Amino acid sequence: MPTTETLERFIARVEQNAHVEAVEEFYAPDSTMRENNAAPRTGRDVHANAERKVMGRAKSVFSQCVRPVFVNGDHVVIRWIFRFEWLDGSVTRMEELAWQRWEGERIAEEQFFYDPAQRVPVRPA
Question: 125 pLDDT exceeds 80?
Fold first, then answer.
């Protein structure tokens, strides 16, 4: 179970848009991550590389935790809002729930729940 301090540090890192660093600091080496019901990806390095690719396509990112954060033992649920402005000028706004299972101070398993229609970038008017 994560301490309150650890959970707050994790949220702060994501809100600072340090997504790669958050993965490197808070995920277990053999952690799994999945989008909705897709097959899980395994390994902290795999997660960090995926985040690097996304961040490399973005001109700017806004990340916000919508409170409250729900904690029940080793399980945490966080509601996130993300806004990506892509290099081509299009924008993606996503709202998702992240369900996490922690082992001590590290995320061992995470699954994101969101409407996939949100992933389609929108061109500004």
Answer: no
Q: Going by DSSP bridges, is the β-strand pair 75-86/106-113 parallel, antiparallel, or unpaired? A: unpaired
Residues 22 and 9: their CA atoms lie apart, in Å, by 9
What is the DSSP code (8-state) at residue 36? T
Whether residue 102 contacts residue 1, with contact meaning beta carbons closer than 8 Å, is answered with yes
Predicted model pTM:
0.95
Measuring CA to CA, which residue among 34, 18, 6 is closest to residue 109?
Answer: 34
Whole-angstrom Cα distance, residue 60 to residue 47?
20
Contact 48, 24 (CB under 8 A): yes
Mean pLDDT of the chain: 97
